[in-house]
Amino acid sequence: MNPGARKKEILSVLVRDGSVQVIDLARLLDVSKVTIRSDLDELETKGLLVRTHGGAVTAEASGSSRFISQTINEFTVQKMAIAKLASTFIKSGQSIIIDNGSTTLHIAQFIADLPITVTTSSLLVMQELMHAEKVDLLMAGGILRRPSMGLMGNFSKEFYRQIHADWCFLGAAGYSAKHGVYCTNLIEADTKQTMIQSASKVCLLVDSSKMEHLSLAKVCDWPAIHYLITDAISDEIRTIIESHGVKILVVDES
Q: What is 68-250's CATH number?
């Protein structure tokens, strides 16, 4: 079996079982454990799995991934209002991080005339700001994750570790009053955590469809978030989140 076919079979087993062990794959594919470890390492760099001691687990839940080309056309009015309010936090001369996502993307159109520094992993944010002459635009490299059209992984993490930002504008697949903030991919969650650590303040941008929605990968607990901007939130959930020191702003869509 050639290397390409072998990696395809590894991913097939991973999708079926949710996890794999080096010793089992070596026996199944009739190759050495060293070869399997090398295959798993390569697949991890592509964001397709997460290595564990003795094996690997799936990077995201089956069927959880949705492409930004779909989500960008959902709750558009709400997302625009959320992004517009978030953009009012940004002052001339500041440095900001804009996360991947269909809500955070909208910030770009409101800041194109500001003399600021923008760091992002989002190819869509890059496209929006690449001709904005007043904006110093920095791109964090990494492995392209096509559902979000964003870059992630160790290259991105190392880049974010070298910078400091006044703000990080964070996206998410869901959040829970009890459990915190979530996305669909473990490697992307790891990258988001480094973004958070590189910023003085973190603002989470989520429309109300994300409320009390859990995904595979936990990004952070509420103490890591300073502001949450949304279009609607229940009183009970608001009270719990605010008890962690998060300031919640609800946009007026009119």
A: 3.40.50.1360
